[in-house]
Specification:
Radius of gyration: 20 Å
Largest sheet: none
Number of helices: 16
Distance between the termini: 13 Å
Structural class: mainly alpha
Helix content: over 70%
């Protein structure tokens, strides 16, 4: 699990750094090496799942989006066939990089979701591929490559992957402050996420649109999108999924939308739901984030209460679990 810890740290130090070419790190030799491993590895087992996910990440870093998404999808199908939950976690890990953008909503959501699939008992070395993580981004080039991938998935009528690509295109347009283009692609992503039974992702990508509308001082339109997003959240039936979304949205309100009070409301609701179902792992992460947020705005007594709750919830957790939960 050190692998996920390293990724989490990199996210908070480079949360706006995604999708770029890095001259100092040539990807082709690594891609060829992993591809060769796959070609000569006939067994459909968990090792193959990891190789496929390695290939997917390398292609993503090299902006070979179509190839990377195909490899990731193949890894997911094999994981499900093998009943290998950690493989599904690796797929989610890929998607958080694939779908990342200006709001970091996907990125944050997928990281937390990945923890549900983490095998904290499995010992392994950190994935060396993280050393190749892009350190620059050029949204214009990213958009060109994403559009190429979009054509492939449109041709094959794969609406789920189309939705992810459209959301990523919108997010990259947001980085360029091109709000009209961002909204155009984001709207298409929202529509497809709803059509393909992924309301939670429609909800999160909506916040990308809200940010753009606020940038253009279109308060009324932003409020309408916000109300639609709330309606989606109300209809999420799974308690843990709802808590996860409330947590992610709360952070977005605090960090990106500058609506601290509303953000706290969402996070406190998530805390209540997690306490109700006894999910200590995710609750510790939430309480830690909430305590830091209180401290940042000078509510030190509430921050202290939050950290006391964090300590209290450590009871019964393994050492490996706590390493995942607290950064």
């Amino acid at each position: 699990m050190k692998y996920f810890l390293v990724l989490f740290i990199i996210f908070f130090t480079n949360q706006h750094i995604l999708y770029a070419q890095v001259v100092a790190h040539p990807y082709k030799p690594k891609i060829d090496s992993v591809q060769q491993l796959l070609t000569t590895y006939p067994i459909e087992d968990t090792t193959k799942v990891k190789h496929l996910n390695d290939l997917a990440l390398l292609c993503l870093f090299d902006m070979q989006f179509e190839r990377g998404m195909l490899a990731a999808n193949q890894a997911l199908q094999l994981s499900q066939k093998l009943n290998y939950p950690k493989g599904e976690g690796l797929y989610l890990n890929f998607m958080r990089f694939m779908s990342g953008g200006g709001t970091a909503s996907y990125y944050y959501y997928y990281y937390k979701k990945t923890l549900f699939y983490a095998d904290i008992k499995e010992k392994e070395e950190p994935n060396k591929l993280i050393e190749l993580f892009p350190t620059k981004r050029e949204p214009e080039k990213v958009i060109v490559k994403l559009l190429e991938a979009l054509k492939y998935y449109e041709k094959n009528n794969d609406k789920k992957m189309m939705a992810h690509i459209l959301g990523a295109i919108g997010a990259n347009y947001q980085m360029l402050n091109k709000t009209n283009e961002n909204i155009q692609y984001t709207d298409r992503a929202i529509k497809l996420f709803k059509e393909t039974g992924q309301p939670e992702l429609a909800l999160l990508v909506s916040f990308n649109k809200i940010l753009s509308l606020q940038t253009d001082n279109k308060t009324k339109e932003a409020n309408e999108v916000e109300n639609d997003a709330k309606a989606i959240l109300v209809n999420i039936k799974d308690i843990r999924e709802g808590a996860l979304l409330n947590f992610a949205i709360g952070n977005l309100y605090i960090i990106r939308l500058n609506k601290t009070a509303i953000g706290f409301e969402y996070m406190l609701k998530a805390d209540y739901e997690l306490e109700k179902i006894g999910d200590k792992n995710l609750r510790i992460i939430l309480l830690h984030s909430l305590a830091e947020s209180f401290d940042n705005i000078g509510l030190h007594h509430k921050s202290l209460d939050g950290f006391k709750k964090v300590i209290g919830n450590y009871s019964g957790l393994s050492y490996e679990s706590t390493k995942i939960c607290i950064i």
